[in-house]
């Protein structure tokens, strides 16, 4: 199989090869495993590679191949999974040393659904510890590199998933997005990332970071594949009480081109203020011109509480994290420190040696915010600000169908550039956090390159309006025709780290 043939493939194209007997799930799985073997020693997108399991599953699929008319949506398609989503029998480390010896005894709901749809799991991908970070530099197992420039970060926290798809080690991946962790790495790696509406995809089997914000999302090389993968994983689940009673996404939610052209496009001025690199603003201005020429109505809107969203997030998310992470105490599962003197020593040393610096920082911050007497002042205030942020979006979506914003204020940054200054790192998500706080769906699309580095465009919509977002993004993808990351020019052999 030639990489140049498949670099523009959609899921359907792989399945056409299978139908025409030009290839098979086993051959394709082997192809991706070979790419992983070739690239991953320097890319380091994977924490676990399940070669045996993937090939066995591919063979099983071939043995009981369904009729060609009713091939399930992901039949024979290999996929990479972020290491905070449980696959039975495989490790789930969450990028943390505290879970380095943990294996999941069950499948997450999304994994069950992908299995039913005929998908093949290649392995588990690297991430910032417990999904806290924007660069994968917080992984307890070393960072992932950006396939487009090995000196730079792939974004985070789903950096391993994004890098694996950009480098075509996998055609698709799942990530999780609490404040931007699907969209920001998608933007840094030049691919498509979707964060669905909060509650549209079950969180059962996703290890919790901040439960009121966490959402599983997709990483793909084109919008069509996002649609397919999202249709498979979405829908109500009785095992997650926050999962909305809403049917899975279906192709009937997708709008025809003439309806797309009637959409009103909103632009929020707060997203283009100081702090955005000029190449990003310029690229988006160009796109707005193209859209005007295509006959779109562009409307300026205001989201006045945008500035407060980041601060409120860094109260709400650490507060919830401090509670969720209390379970890693060396007793029930995971790592335990050596030779504890007593129970207190066991807890303390397990946690201080098992967790990394950023995770400990958030646990301390979150515990403080929730402590007696401070709850009202911090967590409650954070949640009140959150309501205002949500209200801003509700007001805007009265006036427009979708909003366009940058995904990130900067292009992919270099290793070490922000890791010494947590606030600088937090700012990497300044444009993805408000929508996460509001629980609305958002997609990141590669809208061009500056030199070799990709520029992300964010498409936001009202709750459960993924149909509008995906239809618009697909239209834009066609008219912009930005090539997906050039997998040929990947040069990971350069010595950099
Ligand atoms: N970078 C943000 C954080 O560190 C968002 C992370 C995420 O979405 N998981 O919290």
Structural commentary:
There is one protein chain. The protein has 497 residues and is of the alpha/beta class. The protein has a single domain, classed as Alpha-Beta Complex (Amidase signature (AS) enzymes). 39% of the residues lie in helices and 13% in strands. It contains 17 helices and eleven strands. It has helices at 3-6, 11-19, 25-43, 51-63, 109-116, 159-166, 183-189, 223-233, 257-261, 278-293, 306-324, 343-354, 357-370, 376-399, 422-427, 433-438, 466-480; strands spanning 46-49, 77-82, 119-125, 172-177, 192-195, 215-220, 264-268, 297-301, 402-406, 442-450, 453-461. An eleven-stranded mixed β-sheet has the order 1-3-2-4-6-5-10-11-9-7-8, with helices on both faces. The model has no long low-confidence stretch (mean pLDDT 95). Bound molecules: glutamine. The site of glutamine (GLN) has 13 residues, from loops.
Compact description:
The chain is α/β, with parallel strands linked by helices and 497 residues long. It has 17 helices and 11 strands.
CATH class assignment: Alpha Beta
The total count of strands amounts to 11
- The CATH homologous superfamily is called Amidase signature (AS) domain
CATH fold naming: Amidase signature (AS) enzymes
Number of helices: 17
- What radius of gyration results from the CA coordinates? 21 Å
In what range is the share of β-strand residues?
Answer: 5-15%
Low-pLDDT windows of residues? none
Instruction: Briefly note the structural class of the backbone.
Output: alpha/beta
